[in-house]
Amino acid sequence: MLSKTYSKNQKTCKVTFSLPPEACQGVSTVHLVGDFNNWDHGAMALKRKSDGSFEGAVSLEAGREYLFRYLMDGERWENDWHADKYQPSPYGDSDNSVVIV
After folding, report:
1. Do β-strands 54-61 and 47-48 pair in parallel, antiparallel, or remain unpaired?
2. CB 98 within 8 A of CB 1
3. How far apart are alpha carbons 50 and 20 in whole angstroms?
4. Residues 6 or more apart from 59 whose CB is under 8 A from it?
5. Which class for 43: exposed (0-12), middle (13-18), buried (19 or more C-beta within 10 A)?
6. What does pTM read for this prediction?
7. pLDDT tens readout for residues 43-97
8. What is the DSSP secondary structure assignment for residue 16, as one 8-state letter?
9. CB atoms within 10 A of CB 46
10. CA angle at residue 56 from 51 to 60, to 5 degrees?
11. How far apart are CA 59 and CA 52, in angstroms?
């Protein structure tokens, strides 16, 4: 799930990325990876919550679209079930999630 909170001047948006427990069964780590962090696999670890979900937030420049995916346990890529849209990835036959702010 994505939640968005815009700054008062509307120039930035804090986006909270959340994965529900059912999407994370048996998963130890989840990293948020996207063009906003140069697809760095270790740049942003999401925090595991007591219910088994994972969550993290990032401030993004408003008026843009950002591609992202979740990297689970350093080996499995997943999209966000609630992304604003999807875009084909240039690598392989998968799609990237897109958040629009």
Report:
1. antiparallel
2. no
3. 11
4. 12, 13, 14, 15
5. middle
6. 0.90
7. 899 999 999 999 999 999 999 999 999 999 999 999 998 899 998 877 766 788 8
8. E
9. 21
10. 155
11. 24
Q: For residues 33 and 37, give the distance between their C-alpha atoms in angstroms, rounded to a whole number.
A: 7
- Could you give the CA distance from residue 22 to residue 12 in angstroms, rounded to a whole number? 31
Helix (H) or strand (E) holding 46: none
Torsion region of 75: left, alpha or beta (phi above 0 gives left; psi -120 to 50 gives alpha)? alpha
- Residue that is written with structure tokens 């048996």 in the block: 26
User: How are beta strands 2-6 and 85-88 bridged, if at all?
Assistant: unpaired
* Number of residues in the chain: 101
For the stretch 17-28, what's the b/e string if a residue is b when 16 or more beta carbons lie within 10 angstroms of its beta carbon?
A: bbbeeebbeebe
